[in-house]
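Memo to structure team: turn this sequence into structure tokens by end of day. - J.P.
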Amino acid sequence: MLRTCDIYWAAGFLEGEGSFLVSLSNGNRGTHGTKLKSYRVCAGQNELEPLQSLHRLFGGAISFTKPCEKRPHGFYQWT
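Reply from structure team:
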């Protein structure tokens, strides 16, 4: 069960560090002729712990992007 303080923390964290995406399909239509939609929430961080908290609260997946010239430390992403 989600606690109110967890929801407040997640809302604040995602507002500052997250992305909220809505995609409409080009050709596929739903049963009533409307374009199909998909929703995605994600957040990226250098630190793993906040993303683990999101994962515990909402599920999803955490991935790691290897270091490169632009990001010498790599980063974690929760989706």
